[in-house]
Specification:
By secondary structure, the chain is of the alpha/beta class. It is about 45% helix and about 20% strand. The chain has a single domain, classed as 3-Layer(aba) Sandwich (Rossmann fold), CATH 3.40.50.150.
Length: about 210
């Protein structure tokens, strides 16, 4: 299938997608909101009064859910290399998380205050070359994990998107070295054919 046919097929599927329709009806910015909603319903990650960091936030679906469930108490710092429309209770940093200058801005905004929840729904621009896409995805997850190791509260939680494939077992091992509890989540809003899953780490090891 050529690129135009594949793009048209994806668009048709996207328009018919029940989660896309639900997101539009509910006023959520993306279908990804339902991934976090489902995980949070199960794991109770978002708490009013906490500091939350959202990596790879645009268009803002996860930050929107977090802000909604925090009821205006606490604060959220979101980062993405794509622009994001403002959200009440969310401070947005425009830039590439892989760059030290952007990380420095994020850390200045935290002002030494450690988040209790770090979210990462970061994904590379999918090229269609499986080995390349997998490597880039794993690299983003590793950067997010490094940030969580440094900044997360000892009793905090880290939720990160991963793609199952080459590099996944090693990343899972690093998660288990870092957190006392690690589990996998595959919410209903994740398409069945997608290799994406979410790893949840809780309580940093000493």
């Amino acid at each position: 299938m050529n690129r135009s046919k594949a793009s048209n097929a994806w668009l048709r599927e996207h328009v018919r997608d029940s989660y896309v329709q639900r997101a539009r009806a509910a006023g959520y910015r993306s279908r990804a909101s339902y991934k976090l909603l489902e995980i949070d319903d199960k794991d109770h990650l978002i708490r009013a009064g906490d500091v939350v960091v959202d990596l790879g936030a645009a268009p803002g679906g996860w930050s929107q859910v977090a802000a909604e469930r925090m009821h205006g108490k606490g604060r959220i710092v979101a980062v993405d290399l794509l622009a994001m429309e403002p959200l009440r209770g969310v401070t947005f940093v425009l830039g590439d998380f892989r760059e030290q200058a952007v990380l420095d801005v994020l850390e200045r905004l935290l002002g030494g205050e450690k988040p209790r929840l770090v979210l990462s729904d970061m994904s590379p621009n999918i090229s269609g070359v499986a080995v390349r896409d997998q490597a880039q995805s794993t690299h983003l997850a590793e950067l997010a994990l490094d940030f969580a190791r440094k900044w997360l509260q000892p009793d905090g939680a880290f939720l990160v998107k991963v793609f199952q494939g080459r590099g996944f077992p090693d990343f899972l091992l690093e998660m288990r070295k870092t957190f006392q509890m690690v589990c996998s989540r595959k919410p209903g809003a994740s398409r069945d054919r997608s290799p994406e899953a979410y790893l949840l780490g809780r309580n940093l090891k000493a």
